[in-house]
Design a protein that fits this description.
- There is one protein chain.
- The protein is α+β, with helices and mostly antiparallel strands.
- It has one domain: Winged helix-like DNA-binding domain superfamily/Winged helix DNA-binding domain (Arc Repressor Mutant, subunit A), CATH 1.10.10.10.
- It has 6 helices and 4 strands, in the order ββααααββαα.
- The strands form 2 sheets. It has a two-stranded antiparallel sheet. It has a two-stranded antiparallel sheet with strand order 3-4.
- A hairpin with a 6-residue loop joins strand 3 and strand 4.
- Helix 1 packs across helix 2, helix 1 runs parallel beside helix 6 and helix 3 packs across helix 4.
- The longest helix is centred in the N-terminal third of the chain and has 15 residues.
């Protein structure tokens, strides 16, 4: 995000700072809208991001925390990993997942979008 000066329409001769989005911000905003709001599973993906921002988890821990079947959690993990939102460390069942560095740098965008869609999600179903 960068700031630029522009003339104020309210006060002649005055300037105000305008927020200008970078190409990276625009791309991340679109990606996060797609991942979080583009399917029924977006709510669980958002919940996974919130869990991983607290500490790393493996798939089994995420499934327990989300109250979903292991395969459902695994499906959402694959989607998040494919979109470079999370990164794994380790192998097999002990593999831990962390937020990617890029995701950590754009958490403010996640928070902005999550705040908009979270109230509309209602009750999270177990099979999504």
């Amino acid at each position: 995000m960068s700031l630029t000066a522009k003339r104020s329409l309210d006060t002649p001769g005055a300037f105000e700072l305008a927020r200008v989005q970078t190409a990276s911000e625009t791309s991340w905003r679109r990606l996060l809208w797609y991942v979080l709001a583009g399917s029924r599973g977006g709510v669980n993906r958002g919940r996974i991001i919130n869990l991983l921002r607290q500490c790393p988890h493996n798939v089994n821990q995420l499934a327990d925390a989300l109250d979903v079947h292991y395969r459902v959690a695994e499906h959402h993990i694959r989607a998040l990993e494919k979109n470079n939102l999370i990164t794994p460390s380790g192998e097999h069942y002990g593999k831990l997942y962390f937020l990617s560095q890029e995701m950590e740098a754009h958490l403010y965008l996640f928070d902005e979008i999550w705040q908009k869609i979270q109230p509309a999600t209602g009750e999270v179903k177990k099979n999504h």
